[in-house]
Amino acid sequence: MKKIAIVGAGPTGIYTFFSLLKKNVPLSITVYEQADEAGVGMPYSNEDNSKMMLANIASIEIPPVFLTYIDWLRQQDDAHLARYRVDRASLHVRQFLPRILLGEYFRDQFVQLVAVARAQGFEVNVHEACQVTDLEATETGVKLWVENELAAERFDLAVIATGHVWPDESTSTRTFFPSPWSGLMEANIRACNVGIMGTSLSGIDAAMAVVVQHGEFVESDDGQLQFNLDPQSQALNITLMSRSGVLPEADFYCPIPYDPLKVVTENAIQREIDAGADGLLDRVFRLIVQELEQADPQWSARIALQTLNADTINEAWFADRKKHDPFHWAQTNLDEVERNKRDKRTVAWRYTILRLHEKVEEIVPYLSEQDVQRFTSGLARIFIDNYAAIPSQSIRRLLALREAGIINILALGQDYEMKVEENQTRIFNQQNSWSFDVFIDARGQQALKTKDLPFPTLRQQLLATGEEIPDVGDDYTLQEPALARGHIAFGALPYLMHDRPFVQGITACAEIGAAMARAITQPASWSRRRLPFMEV
Questions:
Q1: Quick one: which of 30, 27, 52, 31 has its CA closest to 40?
Q2: Per-residue pLDDT tens over the stretch 434-450
Q3: What is the pLDDT of residue 169?
Q4: Whether residue 524 has pLDDT greater than 70
Q5: How confident is the model over 134-149, as pLDDT tens digits?
Q6: SS3 of 113-180
């Protein structure tokens, strides 16, 4: 019976376990989870989120384990759903619900996984509140150490599924939080001038974590949402900021599963990759133009798509938003997407961009260093803006805060500096400066390198081979050092972002988990190309 260690029991670890179970070959599986409960995952845990924070994925998109998310929800009693202000009668597959509720679903599926695996003859051990402190690749497998244990345990395969990596809570202060998941949920934020770096869902969620300490959202009988600020919290003011100062779109209606693309097919992308790195980005951009023109000729003409290139399309994409007040634009966009959802109308250009990002991502490992930077500052921003459209309810809450006079948005421009001081954080550019009593950095997950690995022996083994970024095969097993081949599957998302900039999300976790499960029976067939480090 082969011995498998799964380090991390969030979605990636769960889907890996589930994929191993489906092979029907009994294994010895040991799961290590540093949180108190295995099977939840930090983005969905009760400790790191509030009931106000919505998961940016609906049941129709979540790969099921034993049950679909919607079927699991329908099994819950009314009182339990009511704790999250969820009405059973209104449940539907495209609904965005609290992250904590999704965490409960994953926890329940994990518990079932353990029971079913044991019933099928698997040996399963689960270690909760247990941190893995080191890993070492050896000729016969992997050594694994946990805190407070001097002796290592040996495994045939170690699956690294540690998920997102945020700054430790010890780096937070009373006035500065390096991420929304670095102690913000437990902090008592006074009514003061609060700055939040980031205007995406993470930034909006950080704002929600603050405002619920100072008032409440109330929905009227006609469905209008307003925020009632506590009388003693009149000093509360929140500023969301980013370089552009634009807000994301509200999530839009489209067919799921996705319809196939007509021009930018897998074969078309492979032909361009085979033609070489020189001009690859520009050749693929021409395919993108053809796809968009076929899908939505009116929109393509309106933005003069034929006159744009991989460098200028970014400005055209955001031009309309930059012309208008962000809150007025958000209200108009919200009204539009809600009409489209009601009428089940798909906006062709939005849907085409959504389907394009996964296909176009395939070229990233083959781009020249210069084109990686061009892609990062151009098309990547468009794709991220499109697929990271946020729940309509989050937009409604933001607009309610604006109506209450609590929140505003600041466009910093491309060149700004941030100085964290003992009692305040200052942001300044060439024209202005701003000071905040409390500051939250909500810019999201950053790509990580080998030097950031929390396992010192494995880190040194990788660095000794010159692996600045972990090099993995199609089953995500490490290709270097040679000792690690077939023994360490590396599915930690932040370290994969250098050549898969859109890898975040539950669907990616499921795909990675299924691939890593293959490592137990077959070797990797190819290796991802090492790249210049890229930040999106």
A1: 31
A2: 999 999 999 988 889 99
A3: 67
A4: no
A5: 999 999 999 999 998 9
A6: HHHHHHHCCCEEEEECCCCEEEEEEECCEEEEEECCCCCCEEECEEEECCCCCCCCHHHCCCCEECCC
Contacts of 111 (CB under 8 A, 6+ apart): 39
- What 3-state class would DSSP assign to 24? coil
In this structure, what DSSP letter does residue 95 have? -
How many other C-beta atoms are found inside a 10 Å radius of the C-beta of residue 130? 18
Global model pTM greater than 0.85: yes
Q: Strand, coil or helix: what is 375?
A: helix
For 321-343, the pLDDT digits (tens) are 999 999 999 999 999 999 999 99
State both tokens at 332.
């108009």
Instruction: Check if the beta carbon of residue 247 is closer than 8 Å to that of residue 329.
Output: yes
CA atoms of 358 and 410, how far apart (whole Å): 31
CA distance 58 to 351: 17
- Encode burial over 364-378: b for 16+ CB neighbours within 10 A, e otherwise: bbbbeeebbebbbeb
Q: Is the CB of residue 109 less than 8 Å from the CB of residue 66?
A: yes
Mean pLDDT of the chain: 93
Assess whether pLDDT exceeds 50 at residue 463: yes
Which distant-in-sequence residues (6+ apart) come within 8 Å of 63 by Cβ? 15, 506, 507, 510
Sign (positive or negative) of CA dihedral 410, 415, 419, 420 = positive
In this structure, what token pair is assigned to residue 245? 């100062």
3-state secondary structure of 490: strand
Contact between residue 475 and residue 515 where contact means Cβ atoms under 8 Å apart: yes
Neighbours of 24 (CB within 10 A): 8
